[in-house]
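To whoever picks this up:

The nightly regression suite flagged Ribose-phosphate pyrophosphokinase 1 as changed. Nothing in the input moved, so I suspect the structure step. Input below, exactly as stored in the fixture:
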Amino acid sequence: MPNIKIFSGSSHQDLSQKIADRLGLELGKVVTKKFSNQETCVEIGESVRGEDVYIVQSGCGEINDNLMELLIMINACKIASASRVTAVIPCFPYARQDKKDKSQAPVSAKLVANMLSVAGMDHIITMDLHASQIQGFFDIPVDNLYAEPAVLKWIRENISEWRNCTIVSPDAGGAKRVTSIADRLNVDFALIHKERKKANEVDRMVLVGDVKDCVAILMDDMADTCGTICHAADKFLSAGATRVYAVLTHGIFSGPAISRINNACFEAVVVTNTVPQEDKMKHCSKIQVIDISMILAEAIRRTHNGESVSYLFSHVPL
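Regenerated output under the current build:
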């Protein structure tokens, strides 16, 4: 493809390379480093004048450093006369801080959106936003892709009893996502009502629906400390489920997450590679990874060619 450049930030270079390989391109030359005072320095190693630039940087790892690196890369390309700069952010940083739930609470996701726009970004491609309203925080085009096609493919190929399963949402907010997948599989769905004492700590959990004598597949956009999904797994078994799986888009797995998964009753915890999982998989054999580089690569190709990306919401050739 002519007049296109793809650059990788330091957060997830493996995914960036897979995207470039699927597009038949080489990653652009970029050097990122830090000065002795910990300021981030970015040097774009080739001309981007008149080019359609895509910068791949996921909101994971050292999130604040990676976000600052992304902002600087966007600005560097913009002032170097790139025709358009698109940020490919598979896992959007600060996405859980999307609303003012306390009187003095910030809406940090909106702040991040403002920062990206001011840096000079023209377009954003992301995946499974924690809250769809984050798209409204931008005054530029936002393509929120879904991992659903890849998830459906994995379920059909890896769970032999998928026709006798119940898809479960861990909260009311994920009900729309779960019902869409349940409808496409033609199976039942359920949801969990939970109450929190504070962030990352569930106080009370009630299963609404039936998982008796079937495979329970818990689906969510993100898992951080994994307290909710591990508590839910025990709830499913006590309610009569034969086996329990968790299928997640963004596997953050911070704090005690890995030890909790190892001690839980999951057959597998399946995540996409929007976040690097190599180190986590070394310490937890239950973690399995779905590659979504094809979905992101196809979105880039269609965006570059001026084609609709809505096709990817329902199907992508994996």
